[in-house]
Amino acid sequence: MARPDMPVNVAEKLSKVTEYWSPKTILEANGYEMKAVKVKGEFVWHDHPEGDELFIVVKGELTIDLRDRQSVTLGAGDMFVVPRGVQHRPVAPEECEVLIMDAAGVVNTGGVASELTAQDEWI
Amino acid sequence: MARPDMPVNVAEKLSKVTEYWSPKTILEANGYEMKAVKVKGEFVWHDHPEGDELFIVVKGELTIDLRDRQSVTLGAGDMFVVPRGVQHRPVAPEECEVLIMDAAGVVNTGGVASELTAQDEWI
């Protein structure tokens, strides 16, 4: 899909996300894609050798476990960058709405094949 | 400044911004910087040949006039990408809080020297 030439509303896009752990692309800039995702529960440990991954929590609370350092917990309005290649595992006890930005084509589970591996899809 | 290894809270960062049109960097990912800025009034026409520029409105309303196409107006929770090289002019009749993401080192007024040209600064 081409980049939208109209403003994109985050809440409106998130309202269309019906599955957990299934990020949907909402815009693209400089080869990086912003994705809207709802999460609940525990994701798989993985990393992204292609680049850093930006998390922005819109609603709820997200903990990101990091293999080699202290976990971080993000509330609404918090942002965090998981550096390139750092093993991480997002965990959300309750439903949480998140924006994720990473390089176009990055797979949500990194190099880990999982039933949680999602297809690249615009919403 | 090094990239923070703790979550960054958008509202907290914006509360530290005291000047209009003076974006402050709050995080970096893949060589792109997220900046918090308060705006009011009319900015200068300019463009960024280095890359696309992502706008995210946190509070208030921002119109982005575009030289070669229809203006867009963003409310809270709206995002928009001004493509690389497209002349644009942000306008906000009332105070508006915005996040802007573009390549590290990009100057807010592009190639236009202006009293509104800001220094690259972390907050």
Automatic annotation (TrEMBL), chains A, B:
Coiled-coil regions listed in the entry: none
Entry superkingdom: Bacteria
PROSITE patterns hit by this protein: CNMP_BINDING_3
Pfam families the record matches: Cupin_2
All copies of domain Cyclic nucleotide-binding, residue ranges: 41-80
Listed name of the protein: Cyclic nucleotide-binding domain-containing protein
Gene source species: Streptomyces hundungensis
Taxon lineage: Bacteria, Bacillati, Actinomycetota, Actinomycetes, Kitasatosporales
